[in-house]
Design a protein that fits this description.
InterPro entries: TPR-like_helical_dom_sf. This is Transcriptional regulator. With about 450 residues, the chain is mainly alpha-helical. About 70% of the residues lie in helices and about 0% in strands. The longest helix is centred in the middle third of the chain and has 24 residues, at about 190-215.
Length: about 450
Amino acid sequence: MAAFPHSPNSTFRRLRGQHSPAEFAALVRRAAKEIGETVSCDARYIGRVESGEIRCPNYAYERVFLHMFPGRTLADLGFSPRESVRGRAAQRGPDVPRSPSSAKESDVLRRAFMAGGSATVAAATLGLTLLGDTRRLPARAGESEAAAVEDAVRRIRLLDDRHGADALYRKASEPLRTAYALLDAGATRQSTEDRLHAGAGELAVSVGWLAHDSGRFDDARSHYAEALATARVARDAGLEAHAFSNMSFLARDTGRAREAVRAAQAGRRAASSLGSPRLLSLLALREAGGWAGLDDRKACEESLARAHREFSRGPAEADPEWMSFFGEAELESLEARCWSALGEHARAARHARRAADLQDPHFARNVALYTAELAGDLARAGAPDEAAWAGGRALDLLAEVQSTRVRAMLAETATALVPHQRSPRVGAFLTRSPAGGSPV
């Protein structure tokens, strides 16, 4: 069957100016580094954009392009709206045609997944609840439904970056139930069913992370296990590696260090053939965190060395989309946690400070997290005034981020700073802290 023709993106070509595609790709990679983003841009990618083959970039590239051209929208850069690119009848190609009523149901489902604004997930949940009460899901899922699930994953990750997990977790559970209902209904084509498996599994990991970050550890464990089961049914090594990565992180956070090591090692085996050094780097850092929890310094240092070695190989086309968060700032943060667990708090503080400095302010949740980590490390390293300053900055960031995880970290820092409460700066922090401390 003939491929659908692409309309060249002449706007983007004009923006490239006199730079060659390779030179412009280098500028894109440099801009990505400036905001802590990870993209593997080369001349071929620029050519695909300009030819119109890439009608709308993924979210990582979107953030980079908008950073490069401040004040412009994707439309100003010559791209099509995301919703017009994914899942429309014109793009379905050989998919089985559906009736008008089925298409209408899919449009309602899409709007439910993709509702926008600061209350995005609340609006999506309302739409999905109404859909479940008054409408039937399509008898068989098509490309439109698969695209809706994939967009739900991206939307939830974007909202978590900006607002934190607490307000999102309950709202995000409804799209997850709908995704698995679509999976149970079956799909019109095997390729669509594969997409649904991958999308539902990634959605389970994302919802599990929201539970994890908001302190609902049993719920997180259940969601991660669901994702792992989905990965194994679908024989999806990438999803399996992702599930094991998050399971390792959760195990470390809940004091099960040996399990953290085993899960990270299982993730490494799943990821070994995927061709993504950055994924192997992240899994090595997960393993290092487990070894640090076991107080095995030698094994921790070996895992950290492997993480840096894999990270230095740079981004690759095979890097999973969900890893857009994993740049140098996250590497520094995860290493800081290892040194902190080993009792080297001054060393941990140096890495945590680099993490906070490197992180793009757009990712408010991560900036708050890294700054809270810095405050805790400084408090334990014997620098109470600096710790109080960092803690106060993290509290300021919590005005726009809702994260039980960050609040718990700041409460621990407040407890550590109580002996220094007569310092004006420490006293001011204690008065504001989540522990509700006040100077005496």
